[in-house]
């Protein structure tokens, strides 16, 4: 029997489209490219506090640990593991200097870059209820989204400041859903904590994990183990899964 073509495999995948009423998106790594903002700030923070050279590959190993959607917690644990005990507050203070900048040095926050077009947001909004559940603070969210007119397309925005328990706790997803059936929603995220929150809220989950990403195989296996329905190269690949 001849091997199945890639085209045939894609058709087979498309036989079981999802039919949600609600789309919930994480922001960082999903709607916005954060390589030059949060990721760069995390590396700069760890290098500054530890005095050691670290790489993006190292970053993703730490980001793959549960509880590390919070970059301040991640950098605190990372620097401590490198031999310099560092509190959450110390890590946050150092991180924010790189992220927001100082009087003499512009911050990385100005590098924010959307990877989903306004036209795509409009198309989704015509068919689904859109929401955001992010690990950002309200200030970090507002810095970019207050000046983006399409923010109004999202019915609810849940930030770190809007919940008692941050990711991987599912509180944010449950606030968005209320008493509605979790199976009528989809959550799209890029982090292990996103997958854990979706699992515990019983919300179908799709993971953003580009081919060629650092530690791809292990990260892919972790997402699949936690029930991810699919691995997407980018958020717009979601369209292939929607009825």
CATH secondary-structure class of the largest domain: Alpha Beta
Give the helix proportion (percent range): 40-55%
Across the major sheet, the strand order is 5-4-1-6-7-8
What coarse outline follows from CA principal-axis ratios? globular
Do you know the CATH architecture of the largest domain?
Answer: 3-Layer(aba) Sandwich
Q: CATH superfamily of the largest domain, please?
A: HAD superfamily/HAD-like
Number of helices: 10
pLDDT averaged over residues: 92
> What is the chains' assembly state?
single chain
Percentage of β-strand residues = 5-15%
Strand and helix layout:
Layout: H1 6-13, E1 22-25, E2 32-33, H2 35-50, H3 56-63, H4 71-81, H5 88-100, E3 113-114, H6 118-127, E4 129-133, H7 138-145, E5 154-158, H8 171-177, E6 185-189, H9 192-201, E7 205-208, H10 216-225, E8 230-232
Parallel strand pairs: 1-4, 1-6, 4-5, 6-7, 7-8
Antiparallel strand pairs: 2-3
């Amino acid at each position: 029997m001849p091997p199945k073509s890639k085209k045939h495999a894609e058709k087979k995948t498309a036989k079981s489209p999802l039919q949600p009423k609600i789309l919930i998106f994480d922001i960082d790594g999903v709607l916005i490219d954060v390589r030059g903002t949060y990721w760069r700030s995390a590396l700069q923070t760890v290098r500054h506090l530890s005095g050691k050279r670290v790489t993006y590959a190292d970053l993703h190993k730490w980001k793959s640990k549960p509880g590390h959607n919070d970059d301040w917690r991640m950098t605190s644990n990372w620097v401590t593991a490198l031999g310099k005990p560092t509190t959450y507050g110390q890590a946050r203070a150092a991180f924010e200097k790189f992220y927001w900048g100082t009087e003499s040095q512009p911050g990385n926050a100005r590098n924010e870059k959307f990877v989903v077009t306004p036209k795509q947001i409009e198309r989704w909004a015509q068919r689904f209820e859109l929401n955001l559940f992010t690990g950002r603070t309200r200030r970090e969210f507002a810095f970019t989204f207050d000046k983006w007119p399409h923010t109004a397309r999202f019915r609810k925005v849940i930030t770190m400041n809007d919940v008692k328990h941050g990711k991987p706790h599912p509180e944010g997803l449950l606030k968005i859903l209320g008493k509605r059936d979790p199976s009528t929603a989809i959550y799209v995220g890029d982090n292990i904590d996103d997958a854990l929150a979706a699992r515990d809220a019983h919300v179908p989950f799709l993971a953003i994990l580009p081919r060629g990403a650092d530690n791809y195989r292990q990260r892919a296996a972790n997402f699949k183990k936690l029930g991810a329905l699919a691995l997407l190269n980018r958020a717009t690949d979601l369209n292939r899964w929607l009825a």
